[in-house]
From TrEMBL:
<dbReference type="GO" id="GO:0004499">
    <property type="term" value="F:N,N-dimethylaniline monooxygenase activity"/>
</dbReference>
<dbReference type="Pfam" id="PF00743">
    <property type="entry name" value="FMO-like"/>
</dbReference>
<keyword id="KW-0560">Oxidoreductase</keyword>
<keyword id="KW-0521">NADP</keyword>
<comment type="similarity">
    <text>Belongs to the FMO family.</text>
</comment>
<dbReference type="InterPro" id="IPR036188">
    <property type="entry name" value="FAD/NAD-bd_sf"/>
</dbReference>
<dbReference type="GO" id="GO:0103075">
    <property type="term" value="F:indole-3-pyruvate monooxygenase activity"/>
</dbReference>
<keyword id="KW-0274">FAD</keyword>
<protein>
    <recommendedName>
        <fullName>Flavin-containing monooxygenase</fullName>
        <ecNumber>1.-.-.-</ecNumber>
    </recommendedName>
</protein>
<dbReference type="InterPro" id="IPR020946">
    <property type="entry name" value="Flavin_mOase-like"/>
</dbReference>
<keyword id="KW-0073">Auxin biosynthesis</keyword>
<dbReference type="GO" id="GO:0050660">
    <property type="term" value="F:flavin adenine dinucleotide binding"/>
</dbReference>
<keyword id="KW-0503">Monooxygenase</keyword>
<comment type="pathway">
    <text>Plant hormone metabolism; auxin biosynthesis.</text>
</comment>
<dbReference type="InterPro" id="IPR050982">
    <property type="entry name" value="Auxin_biosynth/cation_transpt"/>
</dbReference>
<dbReference type="GO" id="GO:0050661">
    <property type="term" value="F:NADP binding"/>
</dbReference>
<keyword id="KW-0285">Flavoprotein</keyword>
Length: 440
């Protein structure tokens, strides 16, 4: 190990970016050896993902004078927001609950900023903290090298060039929504009309005058239905599971804010009862519309399973008015036809899958302890899921939105700062000037 570091130090003296082809001399595991790949030593943590979580982690580290490098697979920050969301999207929660550490939203932004405003906020955030991610670098493999005591993080760029980053700390910030979930539906190949996931849906404009089946009744599915109505399409909504629909605002306050406030004084079950009672007064009995409520209350369910209640922004009125039809699960598809499990068949011109997203961590992180292979989330529940072994961290996997990500980012930076200060040998062997585009 000591020999290895000395060798790095010697090479570094002649290479400001400190990128090498040293594979032959290192004792690397076979999965990493590639004659064309370059190697980069990172002085500080590598953060995978330049969404809000990755940016928050980099800013908190910078606040502690710890440099970091962010690797991002797309060509921009917050790529899901910029590239994979519909035009009418706004933050679901009021802006004060969506701030990243050290920087609030501008006061002239509305209570629920549009996605363009949120992206603008994130761009300003990155700029303010000097965060410059390395774009178009998809992390395909990351593994701890026990012999070196370092993480080896391998990325590939658009032209297929691979780079291996060596670092002492690895922060996973690839998000809970990294890959679209597309269900297997019998007869998909027979349907013969567009079927697209919400990550590809932009606006109802392209469906004007068409019959569209939206599958999934979370916040996205509900909002896409409303958008389709507003563009004179005729949507139906597949509702397979029970769902809590709550008004976005209650008693002049945001439902989320009110819940947080009540939870300071009351047990969760009581707050749930209150939320359900006010929802019933404002929205009526949703089960009459085909939207049965789960047995557990909205907050308890969120806490136990991570399932988010739908905050209604007008869809329910359209369902009540008959503009949106509620349908049960799909049995199978035929040509331009959907057969439902209750035996009914209907014709549709398109299907939108609002079937959610999943983590992609198991595909690239070769680690068994911290992350579950099954769902790609940390095994240990909040707040203990953010720290693994050998300098591995996770930010943004709490199912608690941007608030949870900010909490993670702060704690992770505090943790790494302690090791940084207590004399890791990075200071003597490697100088910050040799970093590739550090975030500091
Ligand atoms: C429609 C929608 C609305 C939401 N509204 C709110 C809200 O109002 N308030 C709230 O608190 N939360 C909200 N959330 C939840 C959550 O806060 C957001 O999804 C947020 O973007 C999560 O940030 P993140 O950085 O953890 O993940 P992401 O924003 O998903 O960013 C992860 C980044 O990692 C990159 N990446 C993934 N894999 C790799 C790889 N292998 N190599 C390199 N890069 C990779 C991705 O390209 C992406 O840029 C919403 C979510 C959705 C889907």
């Amino acid at each position: 190990m000591e020999y290895f570091l000395r060798e790095i130090e010697g090479k570094q003296a002649h290479d400001p970016l400190f990128m090498n082809n040293y594979n032959k001399s290192s004792s690397s595991s076979s999965s990493f050896s590639s004659s064309s790949s370059s190697t980069v030593w990172v002085h500080g943590p590598v953060i995978v993902g330049a969404g809000p979580s990755g940016l928050a982690a980099a800013a908190c580290l910078r606040d502690k004078s710890v440099p970091s490098v962010i690797l991002e697979r797309s060509n921009c920050i917050a790529s899901p927001w910029q590239l994979k969301t519909y035009d009418r999207l706004r933050l679901h929660l009021p802006k004060q609950f969506c701030e990243l550490p050290f920087m609030g939203f501008p006061s002239h932004f509305p209570n629920y900023p549009s996605k363009q405003q949120f992206v603008q906020y994130l761009e300003n955030y990155a700029e303010s903290f000097g965060i410059r991610p390395r774009f178009n670098e998809t992390v395909q493999h990351a593994e701890f090298d026990g012999k070196l005591g370092l993480w080896r993080v391998k990325s590939v760029d658009k032209v297929g060039k691979t780079t291996e980053y060596m670092c002492r700390w690895l922060i996973v910030a690839t998000g809970e929504n990294a890959e679209a979930v597309v269900p297997d539906i019998e007869g998909v190949e027979e349907f013969g009309a567009p079927i697209k996931h919400t990550s590809l849906y932009k606006s109802g404009e392209e469906f004007r005058g068409k019959r569209v089946l939206v599958v999934g009744c979370g916040n996205s599915g509900m909002e896409v239905c409303l958008d389709l109505c507003n563009h004179n399409a005729t949507p139906s909504l597949v509702v397979r599971d029970t769902v809590h629909v709550l008004p976005r605002e209650m008693l002049g306050k945001s439902t989320f804010g009110l819940s947080m406030w009540l939870l300071k004084w009351l047990p969760m079950r009581l707050v749930d009862r209150f939320l359900l009672m006010v929802s019933w007064l404002l929205l009526g009995d949703t089960s009459h519309l085909g939207l049965d409520r789960p047995r557990l209350g909205p907050l308890e369910l969120k806490n136990l399973s991570g399932k988010t209640p739908v905050l209604d922004v007008g869809t329910l009125a359209k369902i009540k008015g008959g503009d949106i039809k509620v349908r049960p699960a799909i049995k199978r598809l035929k040509r331009h036809t959907v057969e439902f499990v209750d035996g009914r068949t209907e014709n549709y011109d398109a299907i939108i899958l609002a079937t959610g997203y999943k983590s992609n961590v198991p595909y690239w992180l070769k680690e068994e302890d911290m992350f579950s292979k099954k769902d790609g989330y940390p095994r240990r529940p909040f707040p203990n899921g953010r720290k693994g072994r050998n300098g591995l961290y996770a930010v943004g996997f709490t199912k608690k939105g941007l608030l949870g990500a900010s909490m993670d980012a702060k704690r992770i930076a505090e943790d790494i700062e302690q090791c940084w200060e207590t004399g890791a040998n990075h200071r003597t062997t490697l100088a910050p000037s040799h970093l590739p585009q550090p975030n500091s």
